[in-house]
């Protein structure tokens, strides 16, 4: 079970590195950007809906013998507005993690580069921007194909298991572990991609430390489900995934021969 302990150790180490002066900017900038964007959208949409409810119910008033219920009616309207704010907060909280991953992805690539350089002391391979764009695009297509057809297959298995009494308790476990494996692959691939390691080679390297990769992905998967924690877990996971790749999984370059010619 040493690989399980190693995965936890890498995550703890990455938290410390995320707070370092050298990496702080790559962690804080995308986080602030996303908070400003989603905070602004939350306030604008909430204000619009609350204003619409207030204007639509402005003339609501009971008369005659039912006038004594007006106070209760106004209370219900105010409660509805508060409920709208709460529901919007829940909606934006659930969408926030997806938005962070989409918007902050380029920053995460730079973060992985800095972690790699600090750890190995080796510069990144020289590559032109057009070549990088083409290579990255091809890799994303390959990566999407890898998980898409497997996800369909796993989903079919989970649905079958779900309808089997007693055994169906494992359905959610199977899906959770599969999702954790995919998440680990995504974060570890930052380091492999930066070093231009082919996707197939990266996958083969993952299989050499299955428990390490699976534990890392499962823990990150669990942390992304926690409110507020999911705001900070992405850069921490990128750092940990890069460290795991560099120190555990990266193919070792054979040392030059010292034998006389």
What's the arrangement of secondary structure elements?
Elements (H helix, E strand, L loop, with lengths): L1 H17 L2 H36 L13 H51 L8 H34 L8 H24 L4 H8 L3 H15 L4 H21 L12
Helix pairs in contact: 1-7, 1-8, 2-3, 3-8, 4-5, 5-6, 5-7, 5-8, 7-8
Briefly say what this structure is.
The chain contains 8 helices and no strands.
**What would the average pLDDT be, to the nearest integer?**
82
Provide the β-strand percentage band: under 5%
Structural class: mainly alpha
> How many individual β-strands?
0
- Amount of helix: over 70%
Q: What gyration radius follows from the Cα positions, in whole Å?
A: 25 Å
Low-confidence stretches: 254-261
Distance between the termini: 45 Å
Q: Major beta sheet, specifics?
A: none
> What kind of oligomer do you see?
single chain
- Element order, helices and strands? HHHHHHHH
Total of helices: 8
């Amino acid at each position: 079970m040493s690989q399980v302990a190693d995965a936890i150790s890498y995550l703890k180490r990455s938290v410390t590195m995320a707070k370092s002066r050298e990496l702080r900017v790559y962690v804080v900038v995308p986080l602030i950007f996303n908070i400003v964007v989603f905070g602004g959208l939350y306030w604008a949409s909430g204000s619009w809906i609350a204003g619409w409810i207030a204007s639509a119910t402005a003339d609501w008033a009971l008369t005659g013998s039912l006038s004594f219920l007006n106070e209760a009616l106004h209370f219900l309207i105010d409660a509805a507005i508060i409920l709208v704010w709460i529901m919007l907060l829940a909606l934006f909280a659930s969408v926030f993690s997806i938005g962070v991953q989409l918007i902050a992805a380029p920053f995460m690539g730079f973060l992985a580069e800095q972690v790699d350089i600090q750890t190995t002391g080796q510069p990144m391979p020289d590559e032109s921007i057009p070549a990088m764009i083409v290579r990255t695009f091809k890799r994303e297509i390959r990566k999407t194909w890898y998980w898409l057809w497997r996800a369909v297959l796993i989903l079919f298995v989970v649905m079958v298991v779900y309808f089997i009494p007693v055994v169906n308790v494992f359905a959610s476990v199977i899906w959770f572990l599969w999702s954790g494996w995919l998440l680990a692959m995504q974060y570890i691939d930052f380091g492999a991609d930066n070093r231009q390691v082919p996707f197939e080679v990266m996958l083969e390297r993952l299989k050499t430390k299955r428990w390490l990769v699976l534990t890392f992905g499962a823990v990150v998967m669990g942390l992304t489900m926690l409110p507020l924690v999911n705001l900070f877990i992405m850069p921490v996971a990128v750092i940990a995934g890069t460290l795991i790749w560099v120190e555990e999984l990266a193919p070792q370059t054979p040392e030059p021969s010292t034998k006389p010619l």
